[in-house]
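From the shared-data thread, chain only:
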Amino acid sequence: MFESITEAIIEMDEMKVSDLVHKALQERNDPSDILEMGLIPGMKEVARLFVRKEYYVPEVLLASESFYAGFNIIIPLIRSSGKQLKAKVVMGVVEGDIHDIGKNIVKVMFEASGYEVIDLGRDVPNAKFIDAVEREGPKILALSSLMTTTMTRMQEIIEMLERGHLRDGLRVLVGGAPVNEEFARKIKADGYSPDAPSAVQLADELICG
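Structure, as tokens:
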């Protein structure tokens, strides 16, 4: 059953994923097992195919929709059971930038890896990031920019976090086409990742050691 769910995600078959997850629940499978042994392996394989350039953005987005067809069914059950997720992540595309495909792929990979994600969307004002950090108390703040004209917002946000004494216990990750490791160090971010799989790997290293 779990392998069939995994394959359906890889095949980008949204309806099949939904049907299989419902069937797995009817057969009294634990929702956490469905996530960890069916849904997550599917997205991990999609990420591997993406890195190897066997899948491209359209395939990843379609696979993501298939993942969410199952994820949205079981996540309320997991949360109601009281099981803890890895950590909370606040993420968004900085102000002035409306390019969110990359951010959306990172989001699904974080959720597929056991993180709770608060997605602020695109064109997010600096103050909204700060408010979300104060309100949600995340372990990770992930900032995305696809334009050289907006990437400076990341530095502004980090400076605002420092002035507000909000960096303690918070890891700031940055990414996007114009961003690189040197820029991340310059603005005092905690890390940079070029793609979604490496973003999750970096988060795991920072949070879980």
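The chain has a mean pLDDT of 92.
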